[in-house]
């Protein structure tokens, strides 16, 4: 199983067609948690966060006709960031210092995250901006546009489908909760429930499928498996309107 960023998963091509494996019946459930609330666990000891500056305030998906009546999914980062001093260009905060030597150790400071920008004007500089990337939820180059916008659209337009799919041991061996294509629609597999029995050739699996925009099944080549010094290579091809996966095994020297 692979673990990746949601944005990479959502924009990845769909290479698996499970139309012929899927039972025709299903249960469809609308997604009611279809808006995002994005924010930080702000440092209560930083006086600059009282009141919260607009640039550091949380972002909430606007209500539209597509998500009207839905609730919000709260995603809160435990690592906030610092504001930038417009004069010095350095990170800025306002809170009591900590000095164990002077018995001033009661004040607490929460961890922050910044981009290291190297030496600027002879000073080591770490701020919330680097190039065209920012750690702020609002304003130009914000985190919503650069990281969460695709996931936001997915939550607004998806629904959940409960469906039984008959899989083979080879299907399970090469699957890593990627996109699957069923009858003209692409889905993300949210969960899979099945019972494994020795020497079972067909394995009924109960899936929770989440609709992904677009119903295109991609063609192309992919490395599927590495076993010792050999690789299993799969190529997806289309013939007479149907898709087939061609397999071949190559030794490591032949691959290089």
How would you concisely characterize the structure shown here?
This protein is mostly beta strands and 256 residues long.
Provide the descriptors you would attach to this structure in a database record.
256 residues; mainly beta; 2 domains; three-stranded mixed sheet
Describe the overall structure.
The protein is mainly beta and 256 residues long. It folds into two domains: 6-32 and 157-255, no CATH class; 33-154, no CATH class. It is built from four helices and 18 strands. The chain has helices spanning 6-11, 143-157, 169-174, 252-255, and strands at 16-17, 27-30, 33-40, 59-60, 71-77, 83-84, 91-92, 115-120, 123-127, 129-130, 133-134, 159-167, 179-182, 185-194, 203-212, 220-227, 230-239, 242-251. The chain has a six-stranded mixed sheet with strand order 1-13-14-15-12-2. A hairpin with a 2-residue loop joins strand 16 (220-227) and strand 17. The longest helix has 15 residues, at 143-157. The protein starts with 5 loop residues before the first helix and ends with a helix. Residues 220-256 have low confidence and may be disordered.
């Amino acid at each position: 199983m692979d673990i990746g960023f949601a944005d990479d998963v959502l924009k990845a091509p769909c290479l698996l067609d499970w139309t012929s494996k899927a039972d025709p019946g299903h249960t469809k459930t609308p997604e009611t948690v279809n808006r995002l609330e994005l924010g930080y666990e702000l440092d209560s000891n930083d006086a600059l966060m009282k009141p919260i500056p607009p640039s550091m305030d949380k972002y909430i998906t606007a209500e539209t006709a597509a998500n009207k009546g839905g609730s919000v999914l709260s995603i809160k980062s435990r690592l906030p960031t610092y504001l930038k001093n417009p004069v010095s260009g350095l990170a800025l905060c306002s809170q009591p210092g900590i000095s164990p030597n002077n018995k001033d150790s009661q004040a607490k400071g929460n961890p922050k995250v910044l981009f290291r920008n190297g030496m600027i004007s002879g000073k080591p500089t770490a701020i919330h901006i680097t190039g065209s990337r920012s750690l702020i939820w609002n304003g130009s180059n914000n985190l919503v546009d650069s990281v969460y916008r695709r996931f936001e659209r997915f939550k607004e337009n998806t629904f959940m489908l409960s469906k039984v799919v008959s899989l083979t041991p080879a299907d399970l061996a090469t699957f890593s909760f990627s996109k699957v294509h069923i009858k003209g629609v692409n889905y993300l597999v949210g969960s899979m429930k099945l019972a494994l029995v020795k020497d079972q050739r067909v394995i009924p699996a109960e899936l929770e499928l989440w609709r992904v925009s677009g119903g295109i099944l991609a063609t192309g080549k992919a490395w599927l498996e590495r076993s010792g010094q050999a690789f299993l290579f799969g190529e997806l091809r289309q013939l007479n309107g149907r898709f087939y996966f061609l397999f071949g095994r190559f030794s490591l020297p032949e691959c290089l």
